């Protein structure tokens, strides 16, 4: 079933390209239908899931692929990857709904279905070469999304995105080759590398390999100082492109931390943990401060992504401060990091879809150009308010669950983590400022004559935020999947 979930959208993409050019309506509904079926298959997988044993995967599939370098088609899921698989499937359903009115639907649907397959493939990959192939293909697909359907200086932003992230992927490949060379026998299989920790006796080589992997993943996340490609890419990308970029592609970096860097290089991770913590704190504060200074709504949301990714980096860094007395706290931090990956994907994906509504109506993201928008667009105001409060971590929403776990676990591991707490206050300030500027007061400027959310727009953003509310109120089903694997990862770090 796992291979079907991964490759069904790819097969559908080929089918969509075979439809006649005049069949726009059929193309759009095929796109929605395929993403909905893929989500249903993911839910069925979730219902059948049972926690695998240590260093094992559920629904594992393996086939010979490149035997000369001992690389195989090896896939499976556990508590780290399964929540991201479902989150990815849901975001692509939301984007398909939102894209019902898009231009060049045949090309757009095929490209997004292709991007869905490579994204799902990365989260289930259990072989480093397979992971790298999906990682690189996601960069190529997103380049064409931004360049083909973006606005403003989309060509330049797409090129900057591609060059930055492709350079990061080359560093990642160097790190993977280092792990392969160190392993005996040589292998790219993730489970075998986790069991062997081949660079444990060689701290210098392990540190260099970890540095290469961290650079590759940090560019994709992105963390400070590798973040400069992100704001222009988001600002000029189409709404559904930004939703997938923030909701799915950024998680490829943070997922790589917990899937590859931490369990395969535990000694080096422990040695680098203080640097990782500092990078996380700087990203949290820098992202929030710069977001607070923005008048462009989409750039503001883009910088909050740097802030929220910083929380994840902080948590995984704190997990490397190994001590017998903090094992439970560090497991909580890792659980919070994975929960934050899911939460950020849902919330920020919805906010970028709402940003697309502003541009579709007025071709402007300038918050100062609006005012009193709640009167002509009450649905938009209500949905945006839920997204804003979820992003700032209000109790009852998924952002609170994630951030509470992150800070509980991280501060228990090191009090230095408390330096990131002002990031929550800054995030609250910037979203309340946006709500005030855009939605309150007398209707003025571009708010006059503004059309409220269409059903497809309400449904796409609404489904993401509804799940954020469900997680915020009933987090136990999600945490029951994540927590056992988090505890296993803490054990691997302590070797």
TrEMBL record:
Keyword terms? Membrane, Transmembrane, Transmembrane helix
**Entry keyword Transport:** no
What's a single GO MF annotation on this record?
Answer: ubiquinone binding
NADH:quinone oxidoreductase/Mrp antiporter transmembrane domain residues are 125-421
How does this protein lie in the membrane? Multi-pass membrane protein
* Principal place of residence: membrane
Q: GO BP, one example?
A: ATP synthesis coupled electron transport
> Which family does the record assign?
Belongs to the complex I subunit 4 family.
- Protein name, please? Oxidoreductase
Q: Which organism is it from?
A: Mycobacterium asiaticum
């Amino acid at each position: 079933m796992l291979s079907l979930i991964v490759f069904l959208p790819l097969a559908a993409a080929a089918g969509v390209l075979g439809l006649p050019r005049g069949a726009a309506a059929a193309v759009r509904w095929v796109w929605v239908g395929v993403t909905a079926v893929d989500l249903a298959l993911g839910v069925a997988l979730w219902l059948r899931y049972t926690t695998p044993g240590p260093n094992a995967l559920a629904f594992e599939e393996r086939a010979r692929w490149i035997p000369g370098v001992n690389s195989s088609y090896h896939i499976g899921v556990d508590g780290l990857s399964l929540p991201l698989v479902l989150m990815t499937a849901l975001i692509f359903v939301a984007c398909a709904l939102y894209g019902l009115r898009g231009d060049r639907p045949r090309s757009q649907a095929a490209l997004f279905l292709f991007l869905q397959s490579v994204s799902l493939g990365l989260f289930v990959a259990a072989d480093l070469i397979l992971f790298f192939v999906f990682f690189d293909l996601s960069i190529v697909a997103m380049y064409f999304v931004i360049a083909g359907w973006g606005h403003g200086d989309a060509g330049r932003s797409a090129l900057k995105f591609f060059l930055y992230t492709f350079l990061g992927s080359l560093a990642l490949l160097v790190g993977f080759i280092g792990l392969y060379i160190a392993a005996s026998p040589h292998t790219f299989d993730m489970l075998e590398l986790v069991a062997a920790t081949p660079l444990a006796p060689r701290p210098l080589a392990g540190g260099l390999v970890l540095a290469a992997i961290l650079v590759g993943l940090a560019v994709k996340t992105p963390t400070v100082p590798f973040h400069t490609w992100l704001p222009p890419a988001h600002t000029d990308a189409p709404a559904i492109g930004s939703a997938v970029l923030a909701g799915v592609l950024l998680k490829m970096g943070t997922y790589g931390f917990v899937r590859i860097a931490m369990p395969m290089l535990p000694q080096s991770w422990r040695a680098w943990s203080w640097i990782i913590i500092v990078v996380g704190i700087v990203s949290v504060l820098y992202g929030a401060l710069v977001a607070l200074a923005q008048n462009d709504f989409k750039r503001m949301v883009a910088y909050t992504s740097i802030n929220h990714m910083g929380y994840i980096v902080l948590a995984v860094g704190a997990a490397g401060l190994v001590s017998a007395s903090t094992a439970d706290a560090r497991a909580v931090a890792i659980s919070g990091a994975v929960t934050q990956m899911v939460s950020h994907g849902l919330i920020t994906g919805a906010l970028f879809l709402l940003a697309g509504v502003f541009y579709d109506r007025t071709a402007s993201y300038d918050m100062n150009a609006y005012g009193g928008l709640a009167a002509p667009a009450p649905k938009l105001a209500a949905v945006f308010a839920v997204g804003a409060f979820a992003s700032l971590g209000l109790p009852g929403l998924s952002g609170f669950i994630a951030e509470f776990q992150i800070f509980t676990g991280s501060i228990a591991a090191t009090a230095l983590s408390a330096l990131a707490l002002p990031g929550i206050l800054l995030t609250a300030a910037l979203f309340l400022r946006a709500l005030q500027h855009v939605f309150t007061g007398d209707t003025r400027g571009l708010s006059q004559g503004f059309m409220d959310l269409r059903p497809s727009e309400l449904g796409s953003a609404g489904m993401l935020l509804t799940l954020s509310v469900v997680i915020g109120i009933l987090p136990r089903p999600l945490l029951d999947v994540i927590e056992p694997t988090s505890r296993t990862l803490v054990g691997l770090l302590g070797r």
